[in-house]
Each structure stands twice: as C-alpha cells, then as structure tokens.
Amino acid sequence: MIERPLTDWLPLTMKEVEKRGWDEVDIVLVSGDAYVDHPAFGTAVIGRIMESEGFRVAIIAQPNWKDDLRDFKKFGRPKYFFGVTAGCMDSMVNHYTANKRLRSNDSYTPGGEAGFRPDYATIVYSQILKTIYPDVPVLLGGIEASLRRVTHYDYWQDQLMPSILVDSGADMLVYGMGEQPLREILKLAQKGVPFSSMRNINQVAFMHNNQTELRDYNNWNTVALASHEECLEDKIKYAANFKIVEVESNKWQANRITQKVGDQVLVINPPFKTMDEAEIDKSFDLPYTRLPHPKYKKRGPIPAYDMIKFSVNMHRGCFGGCSFCTISAHQGKFIASRSEKSVLKEVDEITKHPEFKGYISDLGGPSANMYKMKGKDEAICARCQSPSCIHPVICSNLDTSHKPLTELYRKVDANPAIKKAFVGSGVRYDLLVDDFNKNNEDGNHDEYMEQLTTRHVSGRLKVAPEHTSDDTLRIMRKPSFKYFKTFKKKYDKIQEKHNLKQPLIPYFISSHPGCEEQDMANLAAETKDMGFQLEQVQDFTPTPMTVAEVIYYSGVHPYTLKPVRTAKTREEKQAQNRYFFWYKAEHKDWIRNRLNKLNRPDLVDRLLGSPKKENTGKPKQSGKFSGKKRR
C-alpha cells in the first residue's frame, strides 16, 4: 500500500499546518467525531468546501474538554471564525439508549471507544471557545445544532430547553445540509462582513437583541412562535409551535420564524431550495482521500467508517415525513439526487481503495429507493405545505419512477471491478406496492424489484413497516400493515422464481406514541403468523424536532392538538418490548398472565398456544433484526 502524504488530509496538528507553509489558519473546525476524510462525514464535507473556496482550514477532532483545554488552543486564533459540530449524531443519542443507559461504545471514535466527546457536545465546545476567544465568532452546524435550533424537549433532562444558540453562546447556526448557506457566509466573511451583519442569508439562525428593531430582508414574511417562556408554562403552545416550524422547514417559499427568549429574539431564516444536481455533485466530487486521518492508525478502526467505506450515497432527503424520524427535519423532504456521472465516478474511486475486494456494501441513501424522485410539476411543489409526499396517500404529483435507479444499478454492475453491488439501506417498500402507489404507470416498479432482488440483496433485505396497528401507523405517518403483507408476497414470488433464500428483515418500534400494550401483543402475533422471529427491536426514543417527541412531551398531536397516549414509565416500555420475545422461556409466563389480565385469551393462544403445544416448533422464518437504526 502506497503511503499518501500527510498534506492530502486537512491538518489536525500545528506540525501539519507548518508542512503546508501556512503562517495562520483562517477557520478552525471543532468536531465530536474523529476526522474521516470522506463525503459521508460532515466535518470533511464542510472542511473541503471551505478549502475549495480558498480558505486555510484546520480541524480539532474530539478535543479533550476536561484538562487545561490545550486542544482548543493548538491552532491559536483563526482569522475568521470557529465552526462547531457535535458530529454525525446528536451527542445524547450517541451516548444513551432509549432507557437512558450509557452506551459502551462510540462508532465515530477509533476502536469504537466511548468517552471521547461530552454530553451536549455543541454547547460544551462553543462555551469553551467563547471563554478562550470571546471575540472570535462561533458558527454551529451539524445534526445536533440543526434539530435543537428552537425551543425543544430534551428527553435526557426531561425538560424543555431553549434554542441551542442560547446555551452555547454561539454567534450563528446553520441548519439542515449546510453547503448553500456556508458558501454565502464564506463570501461575506472574506469581504470583512462581521457575523452580526449577516442577517439576510437563508437557512441560518441567530439571536437578536429585543431592544433593537429586526429589519426585513428579501421580502420574507415573518411568523412569530409562542415564546420560550410561554412554552415552559403551556405544553399546548409548545406543540402548536412545532407545526409551524415543520411546515416552514418543508416549504420552498417559507417564512422567517421568530421566537422571544428572555430579552432576546431567536430568528430562523427560511431554508434554501433543495440543491440541484450540479450543486450536490460539487459536494461529492471534492478531493477526499476517503480515508481516516493517519494519526488514528494505532488506535484501531473507526466502526462508522468501516461500515460505509465501500458504500455510495446517491441522494439526500426523504419525503416520508415519519413522525419519529429526524432525516427530513435535517436533510429536508425534497430529494437532492446526484448525477449518474458523479455516482459512477465515486464507484471508480472505491475500486481503487487498497482494501477493496469487489463488493459495494450499499448503493443507497436515507431511503434506498428515492433516487431522482421529485414533483412532476414543480409549481405544485412550490405551493405545498405537507410534511410528507406519501402520507396519508402518495401525492399524484410525485414521480415515483424507479427506472433511473434500476438503470444506475445496471451501470454499476457493468463495471468490471465490481463483483456485487448491494443495497444496504432500508428500502421504502410502500413505493413498490401498486395498491398503495398508483403512480406505477409503466410497470417500472416490478422491473426494479426484479433487479433489486436478484442482484443487490446481500443475504437479506431491510424494510421498515414499524408497526401493525393502523392507529399507531397513522400517528407514525406510515401506511397500513396490509401493504407490507402485499409487498412480502411480491418479494417471495420473485425469490421463488429465481430459487433464492433472502429473508426480509422488518424493523419495528415499541412504545411509540399512540401504541397501547395490546397493540404490541397484536404485533407480536401478526409477525409470528408471518413466520418472523424478531431478535432485536427498537424502543422509541423521543429525539428533538420530531412529531413523536412533541407528542411524548406535550401529550397532544401538534397538528390536531388532540390527546395521544404514550408509554412513558420504564415498566410500561418494558412491557411493550417483551411481547417481541414471546419465544423466550423467561417471558412466557409473564405474557400469559398479562394477556389474561387484559382479557385477551385469543392473543395468548396465538402467541403461546396451549401449554402442551408451546414447544412444538419454531416459526418458518427467522427474521433477525438489528435494532440499530440511524435516524
């Protein structure tokens, strides 16, 4: 393996800065993740964009926040500003399970070691920088900042918190995918414009002094939310706020949002329109090494990198709008797709990796099969306020053709260096069910399914029905479970035709708002009847900026303000979760007693059978499910 020069990476040390002949650094990025120079890692993308605009960038990756803070001082004062991110995950989701137990590993750290970033990393890093360099601007970005940009419920402290700008003391926040606002900020910074004057940039948030008038810009209309203090007093006002934030986040021609917080006003400018093909290609085509920084060699592999190093992200965004998911809240509901040329170029790059053995682990995205999907008439999209393009029904204006994706799969397959290219991302199965998706005009969905099933499944296919109860699914913004059954029949038929044995791996969530204990017992019975034996399941975690989080905290749905019950205590959550494991001896007596108390002997019989028949055999199919979903 040929050693690459250290200067191929953005510098992590002063020695690397000096190797480049720099006498100062323009921008310093501080990240809670280890530095992996790959387009799947936000710090690398942001750093490479800054570099492409002519800035000298250095990175402080996973600084020690407990000692004399030398890590934060090693590059000195940057010429323009500090950029701060907690990393690719919210630091609290990264640290804790749904039961608030501390996780023992961290996928974004060498060796998978935990403990290399603080809780609320964005706030901690920003406060430290403001103490050391009070006059240097701090710009926040990344998923933690994005989803905490307005008053939000924090599950781990069980309380409402104000915009992360308040507690961090930062000067500005970029929300969502940050390339477009970042380029605007860089242009103005280079001209000497201070952060305090950057008030007309789309997709940024900042705190404004309530004593001075807030100017109008760009013909934006302004919508005022209930103040942070009002939200603390009234959960219903907090819930009503969320609807406004979600609606405005998903509009092309959105309004500016304001919210009073003490003697200040939080200002959230409207988002940019989704990046076009040329813009997103530009981000992916930057000169990444596609490797972790060499300094980590002796510390062990970085699990998140190992998982994606031979994968290709073909698009961003998700129009599903699921109630528990943060993807559309951060990446947007409109799909930004790369060009075929850009994707195939990346595939070529992967084949040159010294460890590549001919297998692409994932040709995917947030949902594997939304590539190139968009509105047929963009004028209709421009007026749309719906948080989902496919709930409660698929929009008639949505082009759901899978033909561009099928053709791209075939072109990847045609690369002589590729033995197999798998789809590891979850497939949005409802788009492939004709009873649900009426837009399958030329049968391209069937062609896609044939291609996917016969060429791109690595032993098993991941799909996410999430639940079996229609009432719960409506709150989740997911389709009826009957469509999953239809999809499974279609999938099994293709497998039988080609003599394949590739089980479906269905994802399910317990304790979601609107889910009662009996619903979970029904779920267990239905999946058992279908031949699934679920081994791991995901317990619901209320993460900021989701409908489900708002329901969990406020007790009402933010769109109707009507009550929705949610399992909250550990006992309630464990009770729901146990039904998944009906086949384990240690749970059988509990399940029988519990269902008899609920007067559901029918479910006792379906799950456990009569006492004499309990151990007569296993289900036909073992549907193993790794409950680790990144949302």
From TrEMBL:
Biased-composition ranges for Basic and acidic residues?
606-617
Keyword tags:
4Fe-4S, Iron, Iron-sulfur, Metal-binding, S-adenosyl-L-methionine
Instruction: Please state what the protein is called.
Output: YgiQ family radical SAM protein
Query: Which organism was this protein described from?
Result: Spirosoma terrae
Instruction: Report which superkingdom the organism of origin falls in.
Output: Bacteria
Iron as UniProt keyword: yes
- Radical SAM core domain location: 304-584
Q: Does the keyword Transport apply?
A: no
Q: Recite the lineage of the species.
A: Bacteria, Pseudomonadati, Bacteroidota, Cytophagia, Cytophagales
Pfam families named among the record's database cross-references: DUF3362, Radical_SAM_N
The protein's matches in SMART domains, at most eight in alphabetical order, are given as:
Elp3
Query: Which PROSITE patterns has this protein been placed in?
Result: MTTASE_RADICAL (PS01278), RADICAL_SAM (PS51918)
